[in-house]
Design brief:
binds zinc ion, 13% strand
Length: 149
Amino acid sequence: MLSPCNCGRESSRQRITFDQHGNALFCICPSCAPQDFADPFRAPSDNKIYSGPQAMPNLYKRGPDDVYRAKDELIADTAALWDEGPTARAIQRKRQERSSLTPEEIEKTKRWGEEVLAPILREQGIAGVVAALNTANERTKGKDAGGIQ
Ligand SMILES: [Zn+2]
């Protein structure tokens, strides 16, 4: 959202200073005070992608070869996250949004293909298979995804 600054220009980023009574004293924006908006990590709204050293300069060291390397504390924090594994919420979400089939579902679907669709294909051809699939789809509509019963 853009709103006008004291300098007259519009910006999505502003810093407004208030007095002790809550009245706005003055406003600055990246146009009139670029030095106050130099920290890139505080600018998620500008849709730029920042590298680790840009976003968290305190967690990286610049080597003599001009390459930034993560400090030990960042490596330790990242390793700790790996050890922790996914959260219960992430696991739950993954289960809900799962798009692959379980081995049981694959086996069930294979059996359905061999026991139901294969005979229809032999007797009625592909038109019979299409009709059977349409019927199966009608039956499973409204139920959970996963289809064939
Ligand atoms: Zn301004």
